[in-house]
Amino acid sequence: MIKDSPTPPHHPSHDTSRLHQAAHRAINHYLKPDTDTPAAPACDGLFTVRGDLDGETLLVNAAQDLASINVIAAHLAFEVDGTQRNIALGICRMLEGVQMLVDKALAECAQRG
Length: 113
Description:
Elements lengths: L16 H15 L23 H23 L5 H30 L1
């Protein structure tokens, strides 16, 4: 059988040590990270809230988010039937209750400030 490409001749001058060094550096980079690098701050979740925000700002953003979620759930309730509709309407009712709590806390913040 005839090969399409010939086997390259072996030259003693070909030094593969640089290739091996590069491979070891890559492996060590991914499998043995540097212990000198600072670790990421520990947190329990994926998202965090900035510590420098005041309560009123947090409540305003929470109120806006709750209103948006309520609109989404209400829209969903009118797109589905049966048990799914009842679930979506239940979520709307719960959101309305939480919205009232946030609005009350926001009003108290406004009265104090």
